[in-house]
Amino acid sequence: MHTNIDTLYDNLWQDYVAITPSAHKVHALLKHEEHSSEIVNDHVAFRTFNLEKTSLDKLAAHFLALGYAEKGSYDFEAKKLDARHFEHPDTTKPKVFISELRVQDLTEQSQAIINKLVAQMDAQAVKNEDFLYSGRHWELTKEEYETLLEESEYAAWLAAWGFRANHFTVSVNHLHHIDTLAEVNAELKEAGFPLNTVGGEIKGGESVFLAQSSIMADRQVVQFGSEEKEIPSCFYEFAQRYNMPNGELYQGFVAESADKIFESTNSK
Ligand code: NI
């Protein structure tokens, strides 16, 4: 486990930008608007399988050890996911959103593939300091990837990319020269980034105290045994939070919006 939160995020960021070149371009675009002030991340998201070796709890342990606390849980019925979010007492640190796939709810065929992948993993790997950006711990064929993709885009992404940040999220509230998510989206579109339009460019809004948008995932060539294939990698999200009636800024997530943000790695 990492003992330094900033070192963990530096490592997560380096791993993420290596397969998400758009992230550098987004930073350059927004930093220009911001006259070089720092970009603050609202949250970082992770995906996992709900199996013994890879459970959400085991990923969360890395963050609990750094002072994070669990603050909310979410159910994504159609995608067969459970998720929880974690917050750090230092509000300038990103929130953490971890989802896990309910493997037992998939077809026998998909379950067999996932069990075969995770069986190749060292049971202690999840405790390694670098686990959260350690990528794939198994061999995966193109056929297995495509079989999973038929049933669960999430399962296929996780099988191909393993453990790493799925997305980082710019906190629009912390931008000084841009006030709204709509303005961010306009900047992104002008710069040529494709927005995730599932459920509209902006998911949620002031009525649910959280507005979110995202660009579609970059695409990278991945090795599947002796074959290779270009598939979606990671993406950047943008979040604007609003005050609740009690005057406090909402810190949770909105399942209906997150459900659509998941589609940012969908190439179909
Ligand atoms: Ni997110």
- Tally of contiguous helical segments: 8
Q: In the CATH hierarchy, what is the class?
A: Alpha Beta
> Radius of gyration, Cα only, in angstroms?
18 Å
Q: Which sheet architecture does the biggest sheet show?
A: 8 strands, mixed
Kindly state the mean pLDDT as a whole number? 95
Query: How many domain regions?
Result: 1
Broad structural category: alpha+beta
Beta-strand percentage? 15-25%
Identify the CATH architecture. Answer: Roll
How many strands appear in the DSSP assignment?
10
Query: Which parts are unreliable, with pLDDT below 50 for 5 consecutive residues or more?
Result: none
Query: Helix share of residues?
Result: 25-40%
**Ligands present:** nickel (II) ion
Main sheet: strand order: 2-3-4-1-5-10-7-6
The H/E string reads HHEHEEEHHHEHEEEEEH
Task: Choose one word for the global shape.
Answer: globular
CATH topology assignment: 2,3-Dihydroxybiphenyl 1,2-Dioxygenase, domain 1
Distance between the termini: 37 Å
What secondary-structure arrangement, pairings included, does this model have?
Blueprint: H1 5-19, H2 21-33, E1 41-49, H3 56-64, E2 69-76, E3 81-87, E4 95-101, H4 108-119, H5 142-151, H6 153-161, E5 167-171, H7 181-190, E6 203-205, E7 210-214, E8 219-224, E9 227-232, E10 235-241, H8 255-261
Parallel strand pairs: 1-4, 5-10
Antiparallel strand pairs: 1-5, 2-3, 3-4, 6-7, 7-10, 8-9
Helix pairs in contact: 1-2, 5-6
Bound molecules: nickel (II) ion (NI).
